Amino acid sequence: MRRPLVAGNWKMHGSRESVAQLVQGLLSEQVGEGNVDCAVFPVAIHLSSVLAQVAGSKLSVGAQVCAAQSGQGAFTGEVAAEQLQDLGCKAVLVGHSERRQLFAETDALVAGKFAAALRAGLTPVLCVGESLAEREAQQTEAIVLQQLRAVIELCGAEALRQAVVAYEPVWAIGTGLTATPEQAQAVHKVIRDEIAVHGSEIAAQVRIVYGGSVKAANAAELFAMPDIDGGLVGGASLDAKEFAAICRAA
Ligand code: 13P
Predict the structure, then answer these.
(1) ipTM
(2) With a 6 A CB cut-off, is 112 part of the ligand 1 pocket?
(3) Spatial distance between the Cα atoms of 179 and 214, rounded to a whole number of angstroms
(4) Contact yes or no for 56/74 (Cβ under 8 A)
(5) Which atom in ligand 1 lies closest to the alpha carbon of residue 98?
(6) Is 177 in the pocket of ligand 1 (CB under 6 A)?
(7) Half-sphere CA count of 188, side-chain side, radius 13 A
(8) Is 144 in the pocket of ligand 1 (CB under 6 A)?
(9) Contacts of 146 (CB under 8 A, 6+ apart)
(10) Per-residue pLDDT of the chain (250 residues; tens, 9 = 90+)
(11) Short-list 86, 30, 84, 85, CA closest to 58
């Protein structure tokens, strides 16, 4: 049985004060207690303070991005996966659609970042998903599989044991348009079946979470689907009570 995971991607939101208040709210809601793993992904400059604040709780902390280069070196502006691990992070998002679209991250670069995260002992949360135009052109499966295969080719399918996959249809992100549970389930099954080609045991184990306008009102029906193992939540994760309700739905 896969343990559900609910993760909050805070994107480029929050001041020191508002982040501290949000974490305080999550701790008073006891987010992470119970049969669900909960994680938050603050902006990089707030990682240290959030890690200090959640110490001793069940809430874990990850970063939104890492470098493809390992260790250290002359890479101005980048943060290495090892540095995130050293700080206390457990996971890192790789290949979020905003990174792919706005910051030109290719499948190959995303795979390189996935590999860097693994080398540092972090859990890469590999985000995949199609745009509206791609869905309308019946390209959903091809796009998602292409994104997944780039990682499997570089790192091997075994690497997915240490990873989480997040299916985030781009047209559902920040739009209020959620994929229906059936639409999401269909793609999650495509992803799991593709992993099963390399090993049914790996496929049975890997958590595949859904992202795209998840909120308390729609979380339970999404999480009830057989191949949906939780959620990657954007906007609704900035409200402690709402995020706590989503975690309870998992
Ligand atoms: P929203 O929940 O705001 O649609 O964002 C989803 C997302 O991009 C999480 O990574």
Answers:
(1) 0.99
(2) no
(3) 9
(4) no
(5) 8
(6) no
(7) 28
(8) no
(9) 107
(10) 899 999 999 999 999 999 999 999 999 999 999 999 999 999 999 999 999 999 999 999 999 999 999 999 999 999 999 999 999 999 999 999 999 999 999 999 999 999 999 999 999 999 999 999 999 999 999 999 999 999 999 999 999 999 999 999 999 999 988 899 999 999 999 999 999 999 999 999 999 999 999 999 999 999 999 999 999 999 999 999 999 999 999 9
(11) 30
- Full set of structural domains in the chain with CATH: 5-249 (3.20.20.70)
Question: If you write DSSP's letter for every residue of the chain in order, what string do you get?
Answer: -PPPEEEEE-TT---HHHHHHHHHHHHHTTTT-SSSEEEEE--GGGHHHHHHHHTTSS-EEEES---SS-S--S-TT---HHHHHHHT--EEEES-HHHHHHS---HHHHHHHHHHHHHTT-EEEEEE---HHHHHTT-HHHHHHHHHHHHHHHH-GGGGGG-EEEE--GGGTTSS-PPPHHHHHHHHHHHHHHHHHH-HHHHHH-EEEEESS--HHHHHHHHTSTT--EEEESGGGGSHHHHHHHHHH-
User: Rounded to whole angstroms, how far apart are CA atoms 30 and 43?
Assistant: 22
Cβ of 101 below 6 Å from ligand 1 = no
Residue nearest to atom 7 of ligand 1 (CA): 234
* Cβ burial, residue 1 (10 Å; 0-12/13-18/19+): exposed
Residues noted as catalytic: 96, 168
